[in-house]
Each structure stands twice: as structure tokens, then as C-alpha cells.
Amino acid sequence: MGLRPRSRNVFIHGTMPFISSAQSGQSSTLRTEAQPQSRLSLKATQSIAKQKALEKRAKKYKLPLEELAIFTQQLASLLNAGLPLVQSLEALQDQTEDQVFRVVIREVKQEISAGNSFSASVKKFPKSFPTLFVSMVEAGEASGALAEILNKVASYFEASVKLTKKVKSAMTYPIAVIALAIVLVNVLLIFVIPVFADMFKDFGAKLPAPTQMLIDLSHFLGSWRGAVLLVVLVGIGYGIGKYCETPVGRRQKDHLLVRAPIFGNLIHKIALSRFCRTYATLIRSGVPILRTLEIVSSASNKVQIEDACVEIAKHVSQGGQVSEVLGTNTFFPPMMKHMVKAGETTGNVDGMMGKIADFYDTECDAIVGALTSLIEPLLIVFLGVVVGGIVMAMFLPIFQMAAVAGGLQK
């Protein structure tokens, strides 16, 4: 069978096409041009997927209080400089390094551009902007002094962050030392002591009681029973955590924390300081008292203050005074009652509450300093006793053998 022309460049011999070099070159060129386009489309797809993931996270993103304080202070500064709200948010969006929070700011800006108020826009992100922030913004919008209100909110957040950092810094050292001690003791019990146990087994003599107790504990931790004990302890911790999330468990936990022997006084004063500062900031910004009590209750994270806020709101709605409830509630000290009553007499309750908060902040600083100076030597002694006790218990048989050998030589 001869060749039959199909086109100028392609000939078919039976069913097999033959492609000329010109057509092959064109196909190669098309493939080369298509590769960058495919790479660009892949990058665009990845970018869209990443953006959607960020938008999904933004709805439930919990913004750290420190970042919220910085954002609030910067926004207040931009508004004081005369920039419109949308342009201020756009500037903060560009300079924010947190990609998720950048999406939050963008969404808030778009809501405002669509005609919604600032307070209604941030209310759609309750994890990023707490109730206190939303209510303060509402008060600022109603009074026309949004920048001034945001300055007060920023000061409140900064004071809260400062107090939290001091407490965390005081707790970091003892927690680190205790964790190190636990790891060190477990390493000694599981890996080091079995070596000594094998060596003592060859002696054939009865071991001292402390040494035998350590060896038995080492065998227990190294066996399956030690793993079971670890699982049981983790289960107990998980169960206690879940129980503390229930209303009854949370109430018991808060009462126990306040009555704790070492840290209870500090926890109590921190709660009082937060109550007074939140109350003062909201009242000073023009938030109604009943709404203020609702926000103070939700921001306190203490059942004692939540109960007191409910009682105060009921009493105030019936024409009573805040100081009258504080005087009958044992959670609040008498000094606080007298200062609030003086503020009610002079019409300066928010000023008095601010002074009480400053007083308790100073008290917390003093307690943290005292605890730090007290805990450090106690932890050093604790480490010395635990590790030194283990070392002495393991070397007791060697000391006894040396004493027996010395007596035989004499």
C-alpha cells in the first residue's frame, strides 16, 4: 500500500501518523509556554486556599490581650491624628504581622465601608474583641469621643497585661525548677539506679532500708505498673480539669484558689484589682451601670464577683447603692466599702474605683516580690534534699562495705 497524503505536514501509513519537524517544533513551543502558565495557576490556587483557611480561622481567632492592647493604642493614636476610621484600619492592616488578625481587620474595615458601625463590625469577632471592648466602642460612638475612649481601653488592657506578666514571671522560675526536678528524679530512678541494683545484687548482703526502697521504686517505675500509674494520673488530671469546667466544679475551684495558703492572697487581690479597674474604666467611659456590671461579671472569671455583680445589679435597680452590697459581701474587704461609699458621696465612684485598683496592683507587686524571694531558697533546698537523698541512699551500701573492709584490716 502506498502513502496517501492527509495534509501538508502529516502523512498516514496505515493508522500511524508521521509528524514533520515543523509541527514538532510548534508543539514544543506550546508546551514551553504552557509550563509557566500552569505554575502561575498552581500558585494562584494555593494562594486562594490559604486565604480561605485564614478567613475560616479569623471567625474563631482568639487575639492575645497584649496584641489587642497594641492595636487599640495605635488605633487611638491614628484617630487622634485626624485619620478617618477606615484609613486607620487600613494602615493597621498593612503593618500587622499576624496574618489571621490581618484578615480580621480587613473584614471589620469592609463592614464599616458597607455602612455598619465600628461596634457592630467588631461584634462579629467575639473571640478577638471581648465584650468590654465592644461596649466601650459603643459608648465612644454614642458620645462622639471614640479616640478618647479607645485610649482608656488601651490603658486598661496595658495594666491588665502588666499585672499578668508579673504573675507569670514570678511563677516561671518555680515551675521550671519543679519540672527539672521531676525529670531528673525520673532519670535517676529509671536509668541510673538499676545499674547500682545489679551491682549490689552481687554483694549478697542485706541492703540498707533507704537503698532498698529506692530500688523497689525504680523497679516499679520501670515495669508495666509504672506505665499504668502514669495513665491513671493523666486520667485523674483530665477528669479534674473537666469537672472544673462544670458550674459546680468551677465554683469549688474558685473558692479553693482564694483560700490557698501561699497564692490565695495574691489571687484574691488580683480579682479585686480587675473588678475595680474594669468598673472604673466602663463607668468613666459612659457605659450604663447595669451594662457595666454585666461586663465586669463576664470579665472577672471568678464566681464570687459574678455573684456579687448579680446582687449589686438587683440592689441598684431597686434604688440602692453599690457600697451597701460590698459591705455585706465577705469577698470584698471593709476598706473597699468605705472608699466606694466616699466616692458615692462625692459623685466620683469611678475615681475611687481606679484608686482602689492602683492600690491592689501595688499590693500584688509586693506579694509577687515576696513570694519570689521566698520560693527561690525553698526550691534550692528542695532540690538539694531530693537529689542529695537519692545519691546518699545509693552510696550507703558502698560506705558500709568500706567500713567493714577497714575493720577487717585492723
Structural class: mainly alpha
Count of discrete structural domains:
2
Mean pLDDT: 81
Q: What gyration radius follows from the Cα positions, in whole Å?
A: 35 Å
Which bin fits the share of residues in helices? Answer: over 70%
Task: Give the overall shape, derived from the CA principal axes.
Answer: extended
Count, helices: 16
Q: What pattern of helices and strands is seen along the backbone?
A: EEEHHHHHHHHHHHHHHHH
Report the count of strand segments.
3
Summary?
By secondary structure, the protein is mainly alpha-helical. The protein has helices spanning 21-58, 65-80, 85-95, 99-113, 118-122, 131-143, 146-201, 209-222, 224-245, 247-258, 264-284, 289-300, 303-317, 322-328, 334-346, 349-409; strands at residues 4-5, 10-13, 16-19. 81% of the residues lie in helices and 2% in strands.
Describe the structure.
The protein has about 400 residues and is mainly α. The protein has two domains: about 60 residues, Up-down Bundle (Receptor-associated Protein); about 240 residues, Receptor-associated Protein (Up-down Bundle), CATH 1.20.81. It is about 80% helix and about 0% strand. It is built from 16 helices and three strands. It has a three-stranded antiparallel sheet. Strand 2 and strand 3 form a beta hairpin. The longest helix has about 60 residues. The N and C termini lie far apart (about 120 Å). The N terminus and C terminus are likely disordered.
